[in-house]
Amino acid sequence: MTYVETIDYLYSLERFGIRLGLENISNILNLLDNPHRKFETIHIAGTNGKGSTAAMTASILQHAGYKTGLYTSPHLQDFMERIMINGVMIPENDVVELTKKIRSKLKGQGSWVRGQEKDKLAPCPLPLNPTFFEFTTAMAFLYFAEEMVDFAVVEVGMGGRLDATNVLNPVLSIITEIDIEHTEHLGGDIRTIAMEKGGIIKEKGTVILSSCKREAIEAIEAVCKEKHARLYRIERDFGIRISECGMSNTIFEFRNPQSAIPNLKIPLRGKYQPINASTAVMAAHILAEKGFTIGESAIREGLKNVRWNGRFEVVSEEPLIILDGAHNPAAAKMLADELKAIKGQSQEEESKLILIIGILKDKDFRGIISSLAHLADYVIIVRPKSDRTREPGDLKNEFLKYISDAEVIEDIPDAISKAKHIAGKDDIICITGSFFTIGEARNIIKGKI
User: Fold this and answer.
1) What are the residues facing 123 on neighbouring strands?
2) Residue 298 CB coordination number (10 Å)
3) pTM of the full predicted structure?
4) How many CB atoms lie within 10 A of CB 109?
5) DSSP 67-92
6) Do residues 300 and 254 make contact, with C-beta atoms less than 8 angstroms apart?
7) Please, what are the domains in the chain?
8) How far apart are CA 45 and CA 59, in angstroms?
9) In a 3-state reduction of DSSP, which class is residue 235?
């Protein structure tokens, strides 16, 4: 198989949809000799911020001298972004070979899995029909094991309790900001969703929580009490003081009861990013207490050198073009706050904001639009390349409840050309709504398609 053929096969697994539960992934990993048990892990759940937190945590570990895997989703431009070691994407050839290896195991050639009774093997009902996420999770764990990483930082796909990644027994669990999402799978209120995400907490485990929502705190505290887990909370056990928030970087001070680290720099914009960064710093402190060698220099260098594309990412200066994967109302509200601050920075006439947006149909498009529409001077609605794309006409009708200038240009390259044509050098073009939208846009702007 070629790389392209391999990727086509992997995406064909999307026909099995979303499967929440651990039985299938456990059987698959058993067939692979349980690679996820061969390295230390940090497991990260949350609605927003978990990807950034994962990237920063992995970068700190790497700069501390640990060979560090990073498993995140979704990707922006290429599947290989999902699986990295020390910041380097998994090579195409390894994607091909690992896919062959896993498929061979799934065909049942001598396939047996460990049953409920200790040391007894039972036949595995094959084929297992893995979902796309189950297969790629198994691939990531197998790759990390074969490459003998010291650590893997693993981002939850959806929820936590029944997510395929929850087969891990992590040295540390992290739960970032929690908001309403995936209500059909996780529940309709913050507390219920928090309980699902709290499912990654293990008996006598260690947990960091960076959400300040009362319902989330209460839910996670209840899970920790039940499982006798140690909980560290932002604003109680650690905190931040932001000293500078510019277009290219943010500088802040990390503080906890024992120490303070001033002038930490991250090359990411957004007032929420220091929260994610401080969570990664707190993780480093906890790991150091557990006996891992992580000094202040590793923390500084890890944060300074982190790369995390598509999160308020500036890809052009004149006009200013920003990519941000705000795909739920909470993320859209944070994006709106940042855009409002930039629009108001002009000393003369306020900059014009042109919004290019495409949203998937399983997202709360009304909530996303209500956060962004009032800031936009002109809106262009696109159709990202996904079977799950919401009809652009639905988005246009919703935008027209707030503004008078909105049009549909389904092709993203054409939409970018139109936005550049009507934008002045001091104006802002923001491309958002889904990672599919900004991934395609990033390829176009960076000249890769």
Assistant:
1) 112
2) 20
3) 0.90
4) 9
5) -EEEE-S--SS-GGGGEEETTEEPPH
6) no
7) 3-304 (3.40.1190.10), 313-445 (3.90.190.20)
8) 18
9) coil
